[in-house]
Specification:
The chain is built from 10 helices and 9 strands. By secondary structure, the chain is an alpha/beta fold. It is globular. Pfam families: Hydrolase.
């Protein structure tokens, strides 16, 4: 089929690699204590600013201006950032390997700090199988801004109608779809595999031949 997608673009966090912001300081703060701090310091906003190109030093300074203790906690978070990464998302390394084996072009598009992105492939080696990654912190553009998707399409000369984008956030997928990209909201490897099979990007497993039944060991028998 000439219209089968030829490229799959993956988000990284919570798609190829797990992320838990409580990890870096888990030996100092309980989850409840971290959540209290995160609310008081508006950690979500600080994290977005790093993803959008602010340096770690700038993020720490911004937190410290509100409360010096916040700055100290944020500094330690980034010093131990690798402990926020919980490892590969189950089943995704297999999907990446199968896509690569089938000759599908593999790219990444992630909201991530330019100063911490190097930890990602260590925590989830399948990320190293991607041809390249557009990192928001390097580009100073962030999903769901359409500009970062336009940069992706232009930089890699992609046909949006034959490009699949996989992300765990609906807003990011919706932004991709508005540019004609095939968007999939990631909910797990099994569901993603089904979606990719339906698009013809992965081959669907063949079932038993009509008239056969499957033996307990898995081999078909007549």
């Amino acid at each position: 089929m000439s219209d089968v997608p030829t490229t799959v673009v993956f988000d990284l966090g919570q798609v190829l690699v797990g992320w838990d912001q409580t990890g870096p300081l888990s030996d100092e703060m309980s989850r409840a204590e971290w959540e209290e701090f995160a609310a008081a310091a508006d950690f979500a906003s600080l994290n977005v600013s790093a993803d959008n190109g602010a340096t770690v030093a700038e993020v720490v300074d911004r937190a410290a201006r509100v409360d010096p203790r916040h700055g100290e906690i944020v500094a330690r978070y980034y010093e131990r950032f690798e402990h926020s990464l919980t490892g590969p998302i189950p089943g995704m390394a297999d999907i990446v390997a199968e896509l690569k084996g089938a000759g599908v072009r593999l790219l990444g598009l992630s909201n991530w700090s330019a100063e911490t992105i190097h930890h990602a492939p260590v925590a989830a080696p399948a990320i190293s199988e991607l041809e390249d990654i557009v990192v928001s912190g390097r580009e100073k553009l962030i999903k769901p801004d359409p500009a970062i998707f336009e940069l992706l399409l232009s930089r890699f000369d992609l046909d949006p109608s034959r490009t699949v984008f996989v992300d765990d956030l609906e807003a990011n997928v919706a932004a991709a779809r508005r540019l004609g990209i095939i968007g999939i909201v990631f909910t797990g490897a099994d569901d993603l595999r089904t979606e990719l099979e339906s698009l013809g990007v992965l081959d669907a497993p063949s079932g038993p031949v009509a008239g056969e039944r499957t033996a307990p060991g898995g081999s078909p028998r007549r």
